[in-house]
Amino acid sequence: MDHDSRIACQQILRQDASVFSMQQMDLPAELAAGLTAASLFERYLQHIRRFTLGLIRPTCAEGQVHFRLLGTRLSLLAFDGPRAATEGKAQSLTLAISGGLLVQPQSCDRGELTFSCEPLAETVRLTLRLADFCPLLLGSSKPSPGRKILYRFTQAAIHKVVTLRFLARLYRERAGKNACCRVVPARWEQGEDI
Predict the structure, then answer these.
(1) What pLDDT is recorded for position 2?
(2) Enclosing H/E stretch for 175
(3) Global model pTM greater than 0.90
(4) Alpha-carbon torsion 176, 183, 130, 165, what sign?
(5) Maximal CA-CA distance, the chain
């Protein structure tokens, strides 16, 4: 069974120089059977490891998640959680950013990564959302144009590719290997596109 789908995507730099990035896909309900926010999160961790060829190894222990560099204890990103929530039929799992080499040291207590599944009339909406993230590459709440460009073509680009490929892979696994996903721009929040 082959289907076509769309992944809506937005990545922006807010006025306070925090990053907002969201990717969203509506799956036909029959293709989304068994998906939950928790299973989306688990699959994402597996995808990170596979996509980076094991260079980045997500680890979960004692209420924290770390994205560690291969063979080291260095965390690129550290999170507290995950914290589960339910609102109506929608489920979400949120990890609060708590540190890591890629985060501005003065902003380790800001930001979160959220995975959600929301049943709609005939589809299930899958959303991955990164909000209030303060990347080290930007340096401060007033990054220079050079730092913005560096961030845009490195860390922001990698995050976008990883997330889009994750959703596309999930879609092909459920709809068939020939199923096609198109990426379409979306506008949920205001800010400077990255």
Answers:
(1) 47
(2) helix 155-175
(3) yes
(4) positive
(5) 50
